[in-house]
Design a protein that fits this description.
Blueprint (H helix, E strand, L loop, with lengths): L13 H14 L20 E8 L5 E2 L2 E2 H14 L3 E13 L4 H18 L2 E10 L7 E11 L15 E4 L5 H11 L15 H11 L3 E6 L4 H13 L2 E5 L7 H10 L12 E5 L4 H9 L6 E7 L6 E4 L5 E3 L13
Parallel strand pairs: 4-5, 9-12
Antiparallel strand pairs: 1-6, 2-3, 4-6, 7-10, 7-11, 8-10, 9-11, 12-13
């Protein structure tokens, strides 16, 4: 019978020490973590960015990723969107009794790979085990710290009319990868989650263009429409976008149609918006296209229709892109 997590693995005793030493510390090995203190001793300087996020995605293994790498990439990206270079992560687990140790090891290995790919270190964490039926397999919390780039000035207050809005990739892949798994949908080609780290793309943009980049945001829960509405509402400017410039893969579009979902509101894990001065928009796009050929300048900021997002269709018509009401896709990240 396969080994599973039991309550003793969260008791603070011998079983928990075995779990930490034989899996977590062994796989995520680094000098700071290996001090095995309740906290981490870090060398940082200048202005810092700090972010935390919890991950409850269901299913925990999906095409293109799993909850482990999602937790790393999600927090790395949140720190990067502050105009910072992510350095260190904390890692906390809440595990349901009965969870297979083999699956837990796979998740730890994915966390190791994702953190190495992003150039960050896991330096502290926590593990708790709850009774069978009191959780849903495993939940993960990650917090991240990064150093803000000297020439970075990111914030909604810096957005100005006539600035360009650039999107780094096609949308809705992550949400549809999760929903396709849940609904058992089959397509000619698999829909893969777009989970990835974005920090190196952001670093290159800021190093090249500095304060000409006013705002960065990854379009996770609530999708692209929610980020655009947040920008418009908080800045009190209008936003105009062009539907034909927003790429959606054919199989992703088909899945959305089958489930009655609008791709604009579907979650992403490797998609971000850059609001920048118009005179650098093509240069920003050139950098982003080296990572993803579907990057596009999708619109601009305007003084007209304050607080509203207007989409122009391929046929020339216009419609308001409203904020998301309620939760379209629960347990998506």
């Amino acid at each position: 019978m396969p080994e599973t997590i039991n309550l003793q693995h969260g008791s603070g005793g011998e079983k928990q020490t075995e779990l930490l030493n034989n899996l977590i510390f062994k796989i995520l090995d680094n000098k700071i973590l290996n001090q095995k203190h309740d906290g981490a001793f870090l060398n940082l300087s200048g202005k810092l960015a700090f972010s935390t996020d919890s991950f409850v995605v269901s299913p925990i293994f999906f095409k293109g990723g799993n909850i482990g790498e999602l937790a790393v990439n999600g927090t790395v990206n949140d720190v990067a969107m502050c105009g910072a270079e992510p350095k260190f992560l904390s890692l906390a687990f809440i595990i349901e009794e009965g969870f297979p140790l083999e699956d837990f090891e796979k998740i730890i290995q994915s966390i190791k790979t994702a953190s190495e790919n992003a150039g960050v270190k896991i330096v502290t964490g926590d593990t708790k085990v709850v009774e069978r039926g009191k959780g849903d397999k495993i939940y993960i919390n990650t917090s991240g710290i990064g150093e803000i780039f000297e020439n970075s000035k990111i914030g909604i207050q810096h957005i100005k009319p006539k600035q360009a809005i650039v999107l780094n990739a096609g949308i809705a892949a992550h949400g549809m990868a999760i929903m396709s798994e849940r609904e058992g949908l089959k397509f000619d080609s698999e829909i893969l989650s777009d989970t990835k780290n974005l920090n190196f793309e952001v670093k290159e943009l800021i190093q090249n263009f500095g304060e000409k980049i006013s705002f960065l945001r990854d379009a996770t829960r609530g999708g692209l429409a929610s980020v655009l509405n947040e920008i418009s509402s908080e800045s009190r400017f209008g936003i105009e976008i062009f539907e034909e410039k927003i790429f959606v893969e054919t199989q992703v579009k088909s899945a959305c149609e089958l489930l009655g979902l609008d791709p604009m509101y579907v979650a992403n894990e490797g998609v971000f918006l850059c609001v920048c001065d118009e005179d650098i928009a093509e240069n920003v796009l050139e950098i982003l296209k080296t990572e993803n050929s579907k990057a596009e300048k999708i619109g601009f900021v305007t003084e007209e229709h304050s607080g509203k997002v207007i989409m122009q269709s391929a046929f020339g018509g216009k419609r308001v892109v409203n904020p998301l009401i309620g939760e379209q896709l629960p347990r998506i990240c």
